[in-house]
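To the wet lab folks,

You asked to see what we're planning to order before we commit. Fair enough. Below is the target structure as tokens, and below that is the sequence we designed to fit it. If anything looks off to you, flag it before the synthesis order goes out.
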């Protein structure tokens, strides 16, 4: 849904396009054998190629090519069998070569599609224009010494995929959903770890505004935004700023800007007039990259089941709602966990337990799925006890908490604490008879037509049985005795 901004002079619509930089998962860099390990000592992952020593030549890393192709296939994009590496020339201290090797005219991946999962299970398709491979730059560090800057070249030459969306996004929420889905797909594929706080994924955010239905307006580009929240914040800020200018009769400069989180604003970095002239030309050190169709087909054959088809399957085969399916497939590990719990069991009950008490306990304890004290088999065992009537859903919550604390199985806890559900009609009848005998006025009211009071009797019976009475049986007996 397009987000409308109510201006003084009428409605405005946001138009957004994202350029996402995703770091490729590979052991070594795009054109050198240096390690890509995150967190190494500064300048320890630097080969002579990365340091741009004279005479060094880049050698293309096949693994990075495969990862880009797999990512393209993951968004159903056209794979270009012919692509070319270009030099993008500019000088900066963290780029010792004096140019970045990138792909401008012939990217490795062409047009593709990302499906957004929006609120209420709604979906929307967003176009991807292209994905190209390029080198990352190093890092300049300005805050460790009052007078000097430091350079860390560990990241120099690491492979990035630049994923360029079409200007199809219409709200901060859609932009957030787009980045989440891209990240999810790349994590399933194992092509980018998507850890935005480590800089593995960051976005340039292009924003313009227009009157609904009219031509696109002039856009600004806010560089290097490194979280989904900040991407959404950037869009809000920029759209409002642009509307304000336009409504006061001004025009938007096509410029590069920077987010200032602390002051909830953006600042200009450089305008189009002073934009770089990158003097792109094909890199003479590298041949054009030509792929065989069979190379692409092999990679296509080995792709895992991705979030969208998995979601479809959870809906059609397991009967989950679109919302539940969307939540459960977002991370591959969660989807696997859920499937292990649901296997051979009531899938909706399994989904409720995974998304409810289980996610709740994970969140509360700040643990990852991998460190959960309750395994998929453990949770499955608990669900079995609910399904076969051994315990009620309410007692199950208590059992789950004990499982989380102790790591014991549901069966052992039910046994130890004597939590087995009472389904024996005789035992329940005895409890109910006593409650009826002790509460004559309530009995009179129910018999006089106050049906709501039945609920009160159910509550009293459950309480008297320590929560163990089978609620179905309780209701049945109460209706028979009070009806
Ligand atoms: P350039 O080649 O100047 O970088 P592109 O056409 O490749 O420009 O677009 C870069 C990004 O800007 C893309 O993600 C695209 O979707 C987005 N974009 C293009 N035009 C607009 C616009 N009018 N408003 C918002 N985003 C736009
Ligand atoms: Mg661009």
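Sequence we intend to order:
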């Amino acid at each position: 849904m397009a987000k409308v901004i109510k201006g003084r002079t009428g409605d405005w619509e946001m138009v957004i396009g994202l350029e996402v930089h995703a770091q490729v998962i590979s052991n070594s860099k795009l054109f050198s054998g240096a390690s890509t390990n995150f967190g190494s000592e500064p300048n320890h992952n630097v080969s002579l190629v990365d340091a741009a020593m004279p005479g060094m030549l880049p050698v293309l890393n096949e693994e990075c090519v495969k990862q880009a192709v797999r990512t393209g296939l993951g968004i159903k994009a056209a794979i270009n069998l012919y692509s070319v590496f270009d030099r993008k020339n500019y000088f900066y201290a963290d780029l010792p070569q004096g140019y970045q090797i990138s792909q401008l005219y012939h990217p490795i991946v062409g047009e593709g599609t990302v499906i957004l999962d929006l609120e209420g299970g709604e979906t929307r398709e967003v176009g991807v224009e292209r994905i190209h491979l390029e080198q990352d730059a190093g890092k300049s560090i300005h805050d460790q010494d009052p007078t000097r800057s430091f350079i860390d070249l560990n990241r120099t030459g690491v492979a990035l995929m630049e994923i360029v969306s079409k200007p199809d996004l219409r709200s901060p929420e859609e932009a957030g959903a787009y980045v989440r889905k891209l990240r999810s797909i790349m994590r399933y594929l194992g092509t980018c770890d998507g850890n935005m706080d480590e800089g593995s994924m960051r976005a340039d955010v292009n924003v313009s505004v227009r009157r609904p239905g009219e031509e696109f307006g002039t856009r600004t580009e806010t560089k290097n935004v490194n979280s989904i929240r900040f991407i959404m914040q950037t869009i809000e800020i920029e759209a409002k700023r642009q509307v304000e200018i336009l409504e006061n009769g001004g025009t938007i400069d096509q410029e590069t800007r920077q987010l200032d989180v602390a002051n909830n604003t953006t600042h200009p970095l450089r305008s189009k007039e002073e934009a770089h002239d990158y003097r792109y030309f094909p890199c003479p050190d590298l041949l054009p990259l030509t792929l065989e169709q069979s190379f692409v087909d092999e990679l296509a054959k080995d792709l895992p089941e991705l979030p969208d088809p998995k979601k479809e399957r959870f809906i059609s085969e397991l009967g989950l709602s679109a919302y539940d399916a969307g939540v459960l497939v977002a991370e591959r590990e969660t989807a696997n966990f859920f499937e292990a719990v649901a296997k051979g069991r009531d899938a909706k009950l399994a989904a409720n337990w995974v998304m409810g008490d289980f996610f709740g306990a994970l969140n509360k304890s700040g643990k990852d799925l991998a460190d959960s004290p309750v395994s998929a088999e453990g949770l499955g065992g608990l669900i079995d006890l609910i399904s076969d009537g051994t315990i009620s859903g309410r007692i199950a919550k208590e059992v789950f908490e004990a499982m989380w604390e102790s790591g014991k199985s549901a069966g052992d806890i039910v046994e130890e604490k004597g939590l087995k559900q009472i389904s024996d009609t005789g035992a329940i009848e005895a409890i109910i008879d006593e409650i009826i005998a002790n509460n004559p006025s309530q009995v009179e009211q129910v018999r006089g037509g106050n049906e709501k009071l039945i609920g009160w009797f159910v509550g009293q019976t459950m309480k008297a049985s320590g929560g163990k009475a089978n609620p179905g049986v309780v209701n049945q007996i109460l209706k028979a005795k009070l009806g």
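Structural context that might help your review: The pocket of magnesium ion (ligand 2) is lined by residues 19 (CB under 6 Å). The chain has three domains: 4-299, 321-417, 425-482.

Thanks,
Computational group
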